[in-house]
Amino acid sequence: MRRTTTSSQLIGRGAELAAIRAGYDRARDEQNVTVLISGEAGIGKSRLVEAVVGELPGDPLVLVGGCLELATAGVPYAAFTTMLRRLIRQLGREPGEAVLGRGLTEWLAGPSGDAADASPEFLELESATERSRLLREFVALVARLTEERPTVLVVEDLHWSDDASRDLFVHLARSLLGPGLLLIGTIRTGELGLEHPVRQLLGELRRRSEVVALDLEPLNRAEVVEQLAAVTGRPVDPWFAAVVHRRSGGNPLFVESLSGATDLGTTTLRGLLLGRIARLAVEPRQLLATIAVGGAHVTDSLLPLVSDLSGEALSTALRTLVEYRQIVVAEDGYQLRHDLIREAVYTDLLPAERRQLHRRYAEALTELPAVALPDRLAELALHWAAAGVPKEALTAAWEASRQLHRRTAYGEELRHLETVLDHWSSVPGAAALIGAERVDVLERAVAAAVAGGPPGRGLAHAEEALASLDAVAQPERRATVLCLQARLLNRTDAGGHEAIREALGLFGPGRNDDVRRLVLISAIQVGATTEAFGEFGAYCDELADLAGRAGDSLGLAWSHAGRIRLAMIAAEVERAEDDYLAGIRHARAAGDEQTELTIHQWWSGALMSDDQIEAALPIAQLAYAQAERTGLRRSRGPLLALVVAVCQFQVGRWTEAADLLDELLTDEIPPLFDAAVRGLRAWIAVGRGELALAQDLLEVSGKVGTRSRSAARYLVFAELARLELQLALGDPEAADQCVERLLEVRDHWVPADVYQVVLDGLRVQTARQAAAPRNQAIGAQIRARRTTLLALVDRLGEPSAGHRPYLLTIRAEAGPATVADWDAAAEAWRNNGIRYHLARVLVSGAKSALTNSNRAGAVARLNQARTIAEELGVGPLLTIIDELAGRAGLGAGEEPEPPGAHGLTAREREVLRVLARGLTNRQIAAELYLSPNTVGAHVSRIFAKLMVNSRAEATALAHRDGLA
């Protein structure tokens, strides 16, 4: 057996060290920098961080925290609470708490009193404000620290981060401009499935200029030789080094473990790690198992309470583990040197051994004064659950959930509430133990899901809660859960209307105005998503009256917000500007940033729907930045970003729009919003010719559309993108099926949808006609479809200024149109600044000019269209432009093209290609913008050069020689 040692040298990471140091220099002098270090387990992420932060110049403040894996559930904000406590220890309690400020100091200590006892509807309303306040205070703290000295924050094991920690990390990466901060995150890529939120986070952050992404690669053979020499302290046998390199795959931890192995053929990494541990004496080995059950870090105060050892025996065992490099000494305790060691030791324990050790931890934590701290409560609940003690697991999870709500860790709050529900049937008298009935727990779980959890889980809890809440005996609680259920359904597929109607029925006018106001707010929120409520205006008026009499600023804000949506539906956006200003004023008076952002979103969306892009874009951009800054990116960001992206798309900033949509798709956003984002992104992909990407995006987007007719309003983008995709694939009949599906949900459209669908629908009919010019049945269908589409526009009456370009284009598309008609439409699009539509109309105008033998006019229009298409990067449109120019003979230079096969000129080859499709001379003339007489002359010359006597012979020869 070879003797295994370890080395603190960092081998083969010179480039990565230099990149982090350069990032630190840039962070000190220019702007804050985020470094993401990713790689497989054992690749050396932590060692790289340890090596680099110890050598940074300028005496930086370095705070390190790690995310925890305990029973697969993260401890909320674990990394950041560790940082804050280390900061207090470094500065001293009083100076440290002064730097933190009162808000963060109280947050770190945990809430007091009955802060978590408010009813669910108030918990839900408070949640966004609490999260926003926390993130602002943390950002302010970091800003204060960086004013004094450079600061390095290291968050290890982001792959285990909970939702709250992940949001805070992203918020710091996005919101702090600096300079002064270097933010480092380490991620184990082997832990990330395709849909893992951290994998998506990686993809989004990597695109930012201030982010340095380092993917640690395995060591090469020379580096393995160098590491083995450093580990063993002597030259290495080349054969042994080659075998170690092959078996380890260049993983430094595996190399280190193999350095002492004698059997290199069959040993696994887990076996090697356990083999080393087996050579320890009994007491250190048992102590290592105890530490492994405790998680990533065990404090000095806790370890004696859970270990069988004490005094000198405990100290001796700890020293052995440190010297044997199984554990490392932290500031206030110990942690295993690597997660793989902890995993190997933990999984090697028998189930009964694991349960016994988890119980020891739970009992010890109960005795510690620190048990009142939120992270300790969460840890306690996890240990009791792993110990298989349902009574204590239930009570600890309940207390943890209450604390976690006040810490804005809503995802973790929901998980602990679900632990309570899971253990409920196993614990007699559960209600008496926690002072709450099962339905109370369910209500809180639904509210937590609305605040920051998955809609599906919240809906399941809502169904169970409603089954227990009688409409007669408990109308207020039932109405509350119905409103929360409606919000979740609305995010999923634009549903929730029936739930709102029932809640309104429980509290009709005059019965408990306070509850009625809350229900009306929910009615406006849910109704606005699909514009489906005929009573929408009445709700706004009633809410304004009730809120005005009660002095309720929040209710007044929502009444004005609802009127913005009404104005958009009626295509009378100008009338709602006063409502926008009043709504913002009342939302600020109520101190509700989420409502303020919603009003910004609705107003910018209304302007966008009226094609007032220049007015809409800055409002949406500022509001989106505010959502980022205040920590409301998850709740309000998706729809604000969608408005920004649509505006960017319309004005031709396609790259910016695509980047923003890709960023959105990395977040866990509700299914309905996700479908809308995918639809617009697919539309851009089709325009760029990225058809495979568009198909993938639309496949996911379509899963929402099949569940709810009401979701149609949010899926217009997706269906229109699907329509464009089918046209690009050369299947106009499939594109017409998209038109049919869109028409089935026309009742949910706003005017902007009508104009866009009608315009694209008419283009589909033109493509159908071109594909089957002699098919009388299809011709009849086309005429009927055109009549249906044009009737929709006629019912709208006089368009707004923003919609006028659509109407002019629709009239030209419906035909017959002159060059002047197309030019009028082009001028309208030019004035609106919507460049993609402008380019398409210019192409249509060029076709019309060619029909009238105006070749110079066609060239001018095509050149303008080509410039726009090149700037937008829309390859398919460029292809259409080039093909049109080629068919019309506009693309040739001054030098005549040399004859091709059989002596045919380029124009004759083009005529032959069309002739081979079976078209008559008149049809060829229409397609190539020639006169029938000219086509006849070309056909005669073609017959002569090919030495054929009929169209059939010419067609056969063209196919044989590849000319067709």
List keywords for this structure.
964 residues; adenylate cyclase activity; Arc Repressor Mutant, subunit A; 68% helix; Rossmann fold; globular; five-stranded parallel beta sheet; WH-like_DNA-bd_sf; 47 helices; mainly alpha
N-C termini distance: 75 Å
Radius of gyration: 34 Å
DSSP, total strands: 8
Report the total helices.
Answer: 47
Overall morphology: globular
Beta percentage is under 5%
Helical proportion, percent range = 55-70%
Looking at the overall shape, the CATH architecture of the domain at 14-217 is: 3-Layer(aba) Sandwich
Query: Stretches where pLDDT falls below 50 for ≥5 residues?
Result: 1-5, 112-116, 121-125, 892-897
Query: Which strand order do you get reading across the main beta sheet?
Result: 2-3-4-1-5
Mean pLDDT: 84
